[in-house]
Design brief:
The strands form two sheets. This protein has an eight-stranded parallel beta barrel with strand order 4-5-6-7-8-9-10-11, surrounded by four helices. A three-stranded antiparallel β-sheet has the order 1-2-3. By secondary structure, the chain is of the alpha/beta class. Helix 8 packs across helix 9 (about 310-320). It has helices at about 5-15, 90-95, 100-120, 130-150, 160-180, 200, 250-260, 275-290, 310-320, 325-330, 350-355, 365-375, 390-400, 415-425, 440, 445-450, 455, 475-480; strands spanning about 35-55, 60-75, 80-90, 220-230, 265, 295-300, 330-335, 360, 380-385, 405-410, 430-435, 465. The radius of gyration is 22 Å and the shape is globular.
Length: about 475
């Protein structure tokens, strides 16, 4: 193990260390023979055009840059294994800016990815993947600050964008760890492998508790898929202006009938009350006509566009007036107002949460933001693989301890990242379902995975099936990735 002085010299040499801001690496903690260290790391990108634009938060998105990471780890015994992680960078969602164009925020996240790769590959401490994440995350935050300064960005790289950029690195480490021990990753979150209890990561309130208390020992067999109804998607056939003609569905009713859907995620504007109400009414009508007798469930997602809670309350009241059945089918409301909770303390959700669970998504970046959200009346949490496997596990534990509503959302995640999302949802009790919209907008990125994982990538009864994601590593992602996918 290298000394702290040597480590500080190393970080200074790659331009990351403002010495007072970085933590001293803790020594003398528990050590296990199962611990790993990072031996080698590589990363690459894939580019995909969307089949059709996906409009959310008032912005249409038509492309994705996917960051793929491979990590080789070594145990104290000298055994090694390779893991794989993948995630769309999703800069429109993770790094929104009124000042910086798409290519600038994407480039910033790619420059940050290079710095994170250097930091991660240079980190020589042994530990469990969650321990490694615990010590690496502050270094990643420092890397984001350095990248902001280096590029002269007028909008700093947000914490959310840092989490997204780091997430495939974290996933690859978890995947390698599970494969090294010939176990599914979720079997390695027990005291037999972890060096610390949850108090080490979440504070004294969690002292003496361990992850198995909040996770399933094995995945559920089936999970509902939330199909996304984007802001520009055709709900009625008459709204299809020009057909794509690729043999896939082109309106909501076609999707419902083909995939046997039962759960819908409805993207709303949050700044046009009449449009938002009519959108839900139209979606509910088409859902009922396309599959009568189904116990439909909806998520309404404003992507933080509502000006205040009054808008949300009026929306719910009007929807109930127009379609009582549709109102009853609303399972939860997602991130209605601005993500910066501290700057918008007046946007409390207590009254809205009496009607439906109100879920934080963009706001959730750490335990402090979760606690602030609860104080402000939020009653649910959207877990996301794009915020990192380690973070998802810890936030799931905290949310379950606090008795909060749970769902899993994606970032138009294809391939390995969708498998990752489903794996999280399958192991966290109480999850309402999993968003899975890459099959709508990026089907080309999924096709190489369909044969090996049909239960994830071929939906015909509105459900994901988990039987193919129970192998070694992070839900068997690594085995497929090593075949060149």
């Amino acid at each position: 193990m290298i000394s702290n002085s040597r480590r500080n010299f190393l970080y200074q040499s790659i331009g990351l260390l403002a010495a007072p801001s970085l933590p001293t690496i803790i020594t003398g903690s528990a050590e296990r023979i199962t611990d790993i260290r990072i031996e080698e790391l590589t990363f690459s990108y894939e580019e995909f055009q969307y089949r059709a634009p996906y409009k959310f938060g008032g912005v249409p998105v038509d492309r994705a840059t996917i960051l793929n990471v491979r990590v080789r780890v070594r145990s104290r015994r000298g055994e090694s294994a390779t893991g794989f992680g993948s995630m769309p960078l999703g800069n429109v969602w993770a790094f929104p800016s009124r000042e910086l164009p798409y290519q600038t925020t994407l480039n910033a996240m790619q420059v940050l990815a290079s710095r994170i790769a250097t930091v991660t590959s240079s980190f020589t401490r042994f530990g469990h993947p969650i321990d490694l994440h615990h010590h690496l995350q502050p270094l990643y935050d420092a890397a984001a600050r350095e990248t902001t300064n280096e590029l002269g960005l007028t909008t700093p790289i947000p914490k959310l964008a840092t989490l997204v950029t780091a997430s495939p690195f974290d996933a690859a480490i978890h995947d390698a760890y599970g494969k090294l021990h010939r176990l599914n990753c979720y079997q390695t979150y027990t005291p037999a492998f972890l060096n610390h209890d949850l108090g080490e990561y979440l504070g004294s309130e969690f002292r003496g508790e361990s992850l198995p208390r909040y996770l399933r020992p094995g995945p559920v067999e089936r999970l509902a898929i939330f199909h996304s109804v984007g802001g520009s998607d055709a709900v009625m056939p008459s709204e299809v202006k020009s057909r794509i003609g690729d043999g896939m569905p082109e309106s909501l009713g076609e999707w419902i009938r083909r995939d046997g859907l039962t759960h819908l995620k409805i993207k709303l504007q949050g700044e046009n009350l009449g449009w938002d109400i009519e959108r839900v009414v139209a979606v509910d009508r088409i859902a009922g006509e396309s599959r009568p007798g189904i116990d439909w469930r909806y998520c309404v997602d404003f992507n933080e566009r509502c000006p205040n809670v009054g808008y949300v309350l009026e929306f719910l009241r009007k929807v109930k007036e127009r379609t009582p059945r549709g109102f009853e089918r609303i399972l939860y409301v997602e991130q209605p107002t601005a993500r910066d909770l501290e700057a918008n303390r007046g946007n409390v959700m207590h009254e809205a949460a009496k009607l439906r669970p109100v879920v934080i998504d963009e706001s959730l970046v750490d335990l402090e933001s979760l606690r602030l959200a609860r104080e402000m009346g939020y009653t649910g949490v959207a877990l996301k693989a794009c915020k990192g496997q380690s973070e998802a596990l810890l936030m799931a534990a905290a949310a379950r301890k606090y008795g909060m509503f749970l769902t899993v959302q994606d970032l138009t995640c294809p391939g390995a990242s969708l498998i990752h999302s489903v794996g999280i949802a399958a192991h966290v009790p109480g999850v309402a379902g999993v968003e899975g919209n890459s099959r709508q907008y990026m089907p080309a990125a999924n096709r190489p995975w369909e044969r090996a994982f049909p239960g994830i990538f071929i939906i015909r009864d509105g459900m994901f099936r988990t039987r193919e994601i129970r192998g070694h590593g992070l839900s068997a992602v690594g085995s497929q990735a090593n075949q060149g996918i």
